[in-house]
Fold this protein.
Amino acid sequence: MTAQTNVSALYAPDVECLPRDRLDALQLERLKATLTNAQDRVPHYRRAFAEAGVGPGDLRGLADLARFPFTVKTDLRDNYPFGLFAVPREEVVRLHASSGTTGKPTVVGYTAADLEVWTSLMARSLMAAGVRPGDVVHNAYGYGLFTGGLGFHYGAERLGCTVTPISGGNTEKQIALMRDFGASVLAATPSYALNLAEVAERQGVDLRSSALRVGVFGGEPWSEAMRAELDRRLGISAVDSYGLSEIMGPGVAMECSQRDGLHGWEDHFLFEIVHPDTLEPLPVGDVGELVITTLTKRALPMIRYRTRDITRLSDEPCACGRTHRRILKIAGRNDDMLIIRGVNIYPSQVESVLIGFPGIEPHYQLVVERQGSLDHLTIEAEAQPLIGDAAYPSMAAKIRHHVKSMIGVSCEVRVMKPGEVPRSQGKAVRVKDLRGS
Ligand code: DLL
């Protein structure tokens, strides 16, 4: 790709290519305003800052942010529903929420100005991913309280695309509409994209020879092996998209067409990596927990929000010309990490082993049980349709061996019949945790 075509692919060239020192200066200015606003308008932050003995006046450089307290998911729950809002409820024009498996949902709010920023960041992100004005975007992210559907919807409209607001589910019908409308972009969780690929193949529809060109996938961890699988089965370039509702929704970070890490939009967010146990800030390049501070959010400013997502940052120059640091592919959430006989593993590592394994489909679940004082892992992996069940035991043994040698963990493997592993309609459930039952 020439420099010229790279430059023309930028949505906001001035900001996306801002030199590091100017990005730092912009962050510092916005951070000061955010901390002051949070202290003045949100009792929770006032209290937390006082307890830590810090205030906005202590911020001389970006490194001083480390003196401020973290915000965690329970802070949102404890202040349910609107207690962390920094504006009167009447100024909040949109609410979203994450369902949460236990207890109260996490509620987030947006002013009209917040929605404007979100929309333009989504348009910027889509452009970075290779989407162009005029594309037909099949948006299979869930619409509703989940931020995926509406986030992509408004961003794609802003960019000048034609959007099909299909949401998740009704998969057979989705294939027909993709074909009839000439969808060139698929926006979905990677697990639902796989479900769509499978249903299309079953219907005899070859999406590889359709107009489909780009897949914008996120909302859950997925491996490079899954990327290669989706590229191949859908005939697309699959690009990673990261975000979380507490910070905004999708549009926090997006891969460019280099597909080598996600540019985090540093004019609106400040990214840190901290040690997951000591919570000490780590230098760029080290692996740890991603912590995000919002720099422009009005309704719900977030100071040092602990995402629980494990990754690392890269400030290596990117061939696309964008200067915003990259967040490398997220291995998984701290909470999803399993410790099996002392070995830490994420579902996405198992995914990497299973995808491409002879006779196995890329559908899987991990079952965790307690046996005595130890956690025991069973991998449920699905056989391809033409494999007779007589072959299942030897396939299971081979997978077990592979998992042991690639990840270093001993587990049981159950080969399941075609269709037995539940298909994703949105975010896939990768772990069945039977330890509490
Ligand atoms: O999943 C927002 C989103 C929608 C992002 C659509 C991208 C596309 P939540 O429901 O609040 O928001 O879930 C956020 O999902 O902390 C990660 O653990 C995980 N996650 C999101 N994107 C990725 C990704 C949306 N690309 C939580 N890779 C985050 C790995 C991801 N994990």
Q: What stands out?
A: The chain has a mean pLDDT of 95.
